[in-house]
Write a structure and sequence with these properties.
The chain is an alpha/beta fold. The chain is built from ten helices and 16 strands. Strand 3 (about 100-105) and strand 4 form a beta hairpin.
């Protein structure tokens, strides 16, 4: 998985097969041909004579049908981008987004604003990396340096001073309905952002930004072993969460310490009142082990109403069977955020994790226009 043109086309075919009228796509760290500056500098390392990723791994991927036998070849980055940005993508409802904010209106009358970013803190030598020690891509420049932990592997706070205002910082609540980032935030939910060794490799700046933005939904991937869904209830009452990770699979243990300031990791954690795991309802044919192979359904709407929600629920009902009731997930905008690590493959690049189907309450176009006018 390293951004070959054949891999882009295979992913395109899979996404285009969806009946959804709008399909939003962002790149990730393995999509090296979509990060043109990175690819120009590193293509020999990634696509050179010794193959993808590292010596020996390409053969392993080919044997499992995950790679084609292409050998050393520099890909045409224009053709790779055309897969996602060309006329065929538009005909199939695919919208490729880079870093920034976009607003969409969908066929059922809903409207939402989404922030997207393919970037993550430096993670080995892959695309869309940035150095979290010196760069904050997601927050406006503070008037004074703020002590933060750049990563969980560093125990002593370091002073972070951004060199330049970020070009695409995340707006504060209530501007954003959905966050879609390749990498996860750190600190907030370690179970979704930690490797098998227990190292939290999420972004601390993204954690502070999502606290400000408080979106309805934050979807990410990157850390394959972090697959799962958690619901976070926010609070403005300092120290509301006395133990980190209590209340249903929120992550590791440990006591929350009072932070040095609102933007410290501890300050971010003090904004969290509760963390609860969401498992969803399996969707798939048959019974027993076959059940759930198509995906998992979760109702995140406040009312459960709307044609789109009813259609999705009916589809889930027909496949879940046995009279199993859906557990409704109600959330108030700005009060709760649902975090989803949607990694479909595991650490061995096997497609074993099921996709999520979510009913999400969104404002109607007319209601959104009226609110903007007041």
């Amino acid at each position: 998985m390293s951004g070959r043109l054949s891999e882009h086309r295979a992913a395109f075919d899979l996404i285009a097969s969806s009946t959804a009228s709008l399909k939003i796509v962002i790149a990730g760290n393995h999509d090296i041909t979509l990060d043109e500056g990175f690819y120009a500098e590193h293509w020999r390392e990634k696509h050179g004579a010794k193959g993808e990723l590292q010596e020996g791994l390409e053969e392993w991927l080919v044997e499992r049908g995950l790679r084609t036998e292409e050998g050393a070849k520099k890909e045409d980055v224009v053709k790779c981008r055309e897969v996602w940005c060309g006329e065929e993508a538009r005909r199939n409802g695919i919208v490729y987004l880079e870093e920034g904010v976009r607003t969409f209106e969908v066929a059922n009358g809903a409207k939402f604003t989404i922030y997207t970013s393919p970037h993550q803190p430096f993670f080995q030598n892959w695309a869309f990396n940035y150095h979290a020690h010196t760069t904050d891509r997601f927050n406006p420049c503070p008037p004074n340096p703020t002590p933060i932990h750049p990563s969980s592997s560093t125990s002593a706070p370091q002073t972070f001073t951004p060199q330049h205002p970020p070009p695409n910082s995340i707006p504060s609540h209530p501007a954003i309905d959905i966050l879609l980032t390749h990498g996860p935030p750190s600190i907030l939910i370690p179970s979704l952002s930690s490797t098998t060794s227990g190292l939290d490799v999420g972004c601390p700046h993204l954690a502070r930004a999502v606290r400000r933005a408080r979106p309805r939904l934050h979807v990410f991937g990157h850390i394959h072993e972090g697959y799962g869904m958690r619901r976070v209830r926010w609070t403005d009452r300092p120290g509301a969460l006395e133990s980190w990770g209590g209340g249903g699979g929120g992550g590791g243990g440990g006591q929350v310490q009072k932070g040095e300031g609102d933007d410290s990791p501890q300050g971010v954690m003090e904004a969290v009142e509760a963390v609860n795991e969401i498992e969803g309802v399996p969707m798939g044919p048959g019974d027993g082990e076959e059940r759930g192979e198509w995906g998992r359904y979760v109702d995140l709407s406040c009312s459960g109403a709307g044609a789109g929600a009813e259609r999705s629920r009916a589809e889930a009902d027909s496949s879940a069977g046995n009279g199993k009731e859906h557990r409704k997930r109600e959330g108030e905008f700005g009060r709760e955020t649902v975090f989803v690590n949607a990694s479909c493959v595991d650490v061995h690049y096997e497609m074993v994790n099921r996709p999520w189907l979510l009913d999400l309450e969104l404002p109607a176009v007319a209601a959104a226009a009226a609110a903007a006018a007041t």
